[in-house]
Amino acid sequence: MKFHKYYAFGLNIDSELPLPELTQSSHETGDVKITFDKTPENLNEINGKGALYQVNDRQFLFRLETVGSYWVTEGDHIKIERLNNSTDQEIRLFLLGSAFGALIHQRGLLPLHGSSVIKGNKVLTIVGASGAGKSSLSARLIKEGFKLLADDVSVINENSNKLFIYPGVLRIKLWQDVMRVLNEDPSLYDKVRPQLEKYNWSDHNNVFRNDAEPNTIISLSTKNSAGIEINQVHGFEKFNILKNNTYRYRFLEGMNQMEKHFNIVNKLAQRTNIYTIKRPISPVELDKLAAIAISTLN
Amino acid sequence: MNRSKRNIVWIVSYPKSGNTWFRTVLANLLSDGDNPVDINELDLSPIASSRLHFDEYSGVSSSDLSFEEIEGIQAETYRELSYETEGLLFRKVHDIWKRNKDGREIFPADVTKAVIYIIRNPLDIVISYAFHSNRSFEEIVAQMNDIDMGLCNKPGKLFNQLKQELGNWSMHVKSWTEDSGLPVHIVKYEDLLNDPEKSFRKAFQFSGIQFNPVQLQKAIEFSSFEKLSENEIRSGFKEKPIKMEKFFRSGVAGQGKELLSPEVVIQLKEIHQEMMRKFGYVT
Questions:
Q1: 0.90 surpassed by complex ipTM
Q2: pTM of the model
């Protein structure tokens, strides 16, 4: 079987399915294998579950009837069963989201729910809930000369006593209204899925494909009054922000990986500057928001 | 494994019908403190259509799913929430009661303790809604008559809540009070104003909450219109839409009759006459 080789999330990946959103690699030995295969209906032992997933110490099973089933085992293998004649693009969307999220947790790495961009050696990681404006702000920063390091999920780990943030998915998913604000023509880009007005926006000249060091983290949220508020966070609140913005935190609870998670979150809290930025829910004011975000790097 | 537990109380209403006031009294009753609960800390009864809740309890980003896919999964996220929670759970709801395309209910009976359905004279809803959204009475009536009305339902935009279908006002009332088959307790907003002690007591008893009369009286006092309004002036209200000047505006009944033109009243009554008569809003 021919495998496509990629480097992402700090891992060498061998995949039966082409993954154009990731960085190609020429590694010899892979850390993670992705194959098409049968997946089970249920896990034998279930320590945690959600509407679409089951999890135990070593396995994770995710099933979206309209797209596919993903069986993630031992932090090194994702088996995919295509359902409902879904397209490769749809399979990739949930592979690079929930399935990789689980694999990253299985390996004890920290996936933050946020996008990262880099300029010079300064990395800005923007975390926040869905709808906070992470992707919009990242896209706006790329227009200010930043390069995209990771969209939506930023993976962090420690190596030789240094923290690294790894290149991840190198496209940004943008809704139609944000594309307009950014003066981008949606018709020039592929839809994330045919039924959604959401597009895969990417600029291959503005991506960063190497490991970097985390630097500044912004926790972005919305408020119902005018004006943008920024505050630097100190002490235990830093830890809380990182814990609360851990991607798919509920997966962890069934995995027995809480201690590793606690340790890395603790180190990251100590070694980064963390800010909260609250923006009006509308209008988005991306220009102002970008200027304020950039000011945190000085 | 049967993990079913009937412990969710859905606090349901068409928008601008008194849901926030009800939740404030509830929050004060449950906290049983010496001071009123801050209106920005009503987190005990968050909205059922929270995107954050869906994403956590499903394990997938709702922003990558179609409206139809979300409706297929929603009920299961509420079940997960119910299973992991001891004791009663409260969720605010503006959606119409409906089934998804597979014929399954979105608000599942097997985890439902009770539905508190708050109904308000639609003429008064028009006034409240219009002031709160800076729109004309005519626009609001058109919306309340629109069978396709919904919230957070524009396709090219991401909202922090999931799409909520409302239907028109009568459909909304009928869906919960006649079609759902759930244990529903109907509360009239006007009764909450006229005899708060009796109306809140009956609703809370129906929900299975334990309390004594002193606690209830204190909760109602702590949630008076004056107190809520003061609280909003002092520290804002995070559930207020950004375009709205002030969330707690007047808190009275009967303004619809005084302020609406006969034409607007006719437009509303044409569609909702039957349901209004049923609840004593027209004679």
A1: yes
A2: 0.94
